[in-house]
């Protein structure tokens, strides 16, 4: 597929005039860096498990060693991954607008690795660890016996990844900040998300209700597709760099016309 070279002028004008741009990202942008989506992570040794058997508070209580091993395997995939052109384009976009908020459902930290600053992690970060009992963040621990989860150095409770399990609420502060961004931005980009996982799936709808221009970047159609102002049906790593280039050219033309 040839790289996109043009975008609707009203879209570029909306971006150029926006005082606040918000972006919501999902698994699609990380998949372009080689990180499997949550469901696709059920391969090899893990193919016989349902994710909901491994990512719940109940599973952690019943078999903490199994849960820890699965997340350690997923962490190994994240350690090998690098930000892709889609991540880097969002870093550049952040430098072009007065206010920029990046809301992500991903837990891999690739946005921060690329250089994004104002990142709201709705579902936590798989590379962080905390105690399931006392809640403290933990950065080092004694190696556990084979097949077991490590113990908290503070209270001897079970350690877990600092991510949101099924059945757990999202971090209150992160959700409140995301809602504020969705209702205050003039433009929202929705990148690589299925638009079905709540409460994140409602954020673009709140932006629409508040009058924002909403743009979907996704090769696949989603429940959000019929509602958005613009749909860019291409992978983020291809279309976002082109969009940023077009925006820079548009801004240069505006400045040249003054």
Polypeptide structure, described:
The protein is of the alpha/beta class. The protein contains ten helices and nine strands. The protein has helices at 9-17, 27-31, 51-54, 57-62, 64-80, 85-96, 110-114, 172-184, 203-209, 236-256, and strands spanning 20-25, 99-104, 119-121, 124-131, 137-138, 159-163, 187-191, 213-217, 230-232. The strands form two sheets. A six-stranded parallel β-sheet has the order 3-2-1-7-8-9, with helices on both faces. The chain has a three-stranded antiparallel β-sheet with strand order 5-4-6, with helices on one face. The protein is elongated, with a radius of gyration of 20 Å.
Write down the overall geometry: elongated
Estimate what percentage of residues fall within beta strands: 15-25%
Q: How many strand segments?
A: 9
Gyration radius, in Å: 20 Å
Give the mean pLDDT.
Answer: 92
Q: Number of helical runs?
A: 10
Q: Which structural class matches the secondary elements? A: alpha/beta
Helix share, percent:
25-40%
Q: Distance between termini?
A: 37 Å
> What's the order of the H and E elements?
HEHHHHHEHEEEEHEHEEH
> Which parts are unreliable, with pLDDT below 50 for 5 consecutive residues or more?
none
Spatial strand arrangement across the major sheet: 3-2-1-7-8-9
Q: Biggest sheet, in brief? A: 6 strands, parallel
């Amino acid at each position: 597929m040839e790289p996109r070279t043009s975008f609707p002028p009203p879209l570029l004008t909306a971006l150029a005039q926006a005082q606040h741009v918000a972006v919501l990202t999902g698994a699609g942008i990380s998949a372009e860096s080689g990180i499997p989506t949550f469901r696709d992570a059920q391969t090899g040794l893990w193919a016989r498990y349902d994710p909901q058997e491994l990512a719940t508070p109940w599973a952690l209580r019943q078999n903490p060693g199994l849960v820890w091993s699965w997340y350690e395997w997923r962490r190994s995939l994240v350690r090998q991954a690098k930000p892709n052109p889609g991540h880097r384009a969002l870093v550049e976009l952040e430098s072009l607008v007065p206010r920029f908020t990046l809301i992500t459902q991903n837990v891999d930290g690739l946005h921060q690795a690329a250089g994004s600053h104002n990142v709201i992690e709705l579902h936590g970060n798989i590379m962080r660890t905390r105690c399931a009992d006392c809640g403290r963040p933990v950065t080092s621990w004694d190696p556990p016996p084979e097949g077991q989860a490590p113990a908290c150095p503070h209270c001897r409770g079970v350690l877990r990844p600092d991510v949101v399990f099924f059945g757990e609420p999202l971090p209150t502060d992160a959700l409140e900040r995301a809602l504020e961004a969705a209702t205050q931005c003039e433009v929202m980009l929705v990148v690589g998300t299925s638009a079905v996982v709540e409460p994140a799936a409602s954020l673009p709808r709140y932006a629409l209700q508040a009058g924002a221009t909403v743009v979907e970047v996704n090769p696949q159609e989603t429940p959000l597709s019929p509602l958005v102002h613009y749909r860019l049906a291409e992978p983020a790593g291809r279309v976002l760099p082109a969009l940023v280039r077009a925006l820079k050219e548009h801004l240069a033309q505006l400045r040249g016309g003054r």
